[in-house]
Amino acid sequence: MGILEVKNLTLRFGGVVALDDVSYEVKEGEIFSLIGPNGAGKTSMLNCISGLYRPNEGSIQFKDSPITNLKPYKRASLGIARAFQNIELFPHLSVLDNLMLGRHVRMKTGVLAGGVFFGKAQREEIEHREKVEQVIDFLEIEHIRNTPVGTLSYGLQKRVEVGRALSLEPDLLLLDEPMAGMNTEEKEDMARYIIDIHEEMQTTIVLIEHDMGVVMDLSDHIAVLDFGKLIGYGTPNEIQNNQKVIEAYLGEENTV
């Protein structure tokens, strides 16, 4: 069953066509990768899914409900979370505080009750803190929970970025190059976390990644964009043998 359906999506910036009549489906419970050369439209696609961009044409459905015109916070409340390619954390806040901010759309208590912090607001704060602590344990960042994010290494900041998205308890997790700028050991750790998120949390994942070894090892299905057009869609084996994809992106040496 498809959890996400993108139909005939077109996105323009003036005379520049970032996405050109793109359609595909992401099945519930799979790891789905978006790949392609730089400037192919991959991040623009995630921006459309998460609500940061509104497409000029086409539609997006999540769990069989249209979300094309919904605000980002509405999509988040439905179960769509996003980790950004460029780290979008609050550097002066601690890891714990950044992850607690990831819970904001789950918070139901009014501002007044939250400000005086008693009764229902206090109970809700405890419940949200428990969920965040589970994410901290899951990502093995207990030792830095009270550390200001801006003082952490790049690899740990990327992990916290993913953790903030996980704090939302998403059904669909959008990961935009979570391994960019990492060394080999950090990449291996992140790949392990992605597998664990998928298997243990049963989360559907849409992944943008340039490391083709990671993409081919982790993905159930792959969509390939080039200059905003969908030029390939299928299993890793089908993509590796797709001549259009080979010519535009993979190259002959990456097809074996």
Automatic annotation (TrEMBL):
InterPro entries membership: AAA+_ATPase (IPR003593), ABC_AA/LPS_Transport (IPR051120), ABC_transporter-like_ATP-bd (IPR003439), BCA_ABC_TP_C (IPR032823), P-loop_NTPase (IPR027417)
GO MF entries: ATP binding; ATP hydrolysis activity
Record CDD domains: ABC_Mj1267_LivG_branched
Keywords annotated in UniProt: ATP-binding, Nucleotide-binding, Transport
One Pfam family from the record: BCA_ABC_TP_C
GO cellular component, one term: plasma membrane
ABC transporter domain segment(s): 4-252
Keyword Protein transport: no
Protein name stated in the entry: Amino acid/amide ABC transporter ATP-binding protein 1, HAAT family
Organism: Mesobacillus persicus
